[in-house]
Amino acid sequence: MNQEDALDFEQALGRLEQIVAEMDAGDLSLDAALALFQEGMALRKQCSERLKTAEAVVEQYLEDNLDAEGGDTA
User: Fold this and answer.
1) How many CA atoms, within 13 angstroms, populate the side-chain half-sphere of residue 44?
2) pLDDT in tens, the chain (74 residues)
3) Of 2, 7, 13, 63, which sits most exposed with the smallest number of CB within 10 A?
4) CA distance linking residue 66 with residue 20, whole number of Å
5) Cβ count near 5 (within 10 Å)
């Protein structure tokens, strides 16, 4: 498991914000900027996947509850 996988959503988002701030400062070497960019892209992917998972859980919950109440999903 790499470092990004060990972070929860809020920690990953916070780290992503730090990376953006460091890159915006503009005082990085090309190698440092590239390393931060790669870390940021991995964190972005992780956050996106976690949001999709959370959205699916909420949608399933709502669907199950609407079906149980006899409502429609539209």
Assistant:
1) 9
2) 455 567 999 999 999 999 999 999 999 999 999 999 999 999 999 999 999 999 999 999 999 998 877 765 55
3) 2
4) 41
5) 9
Query: Three-state SS for 57?
Result: helix
The Cα 40–Cα 46 span in angstroms is: 10
Handedness of CA 13, 48, 24, 37 (dihedral sign): positive
Query: Alpha helices of the chain — where are they, by DSSP H?
Result: 9-25, 30-69
Do 12 and 46 touch, CB atoms closer than 8 A?
yes
How many other CB atoms sit within 10 Å of the CB of residue 12?
A: 21
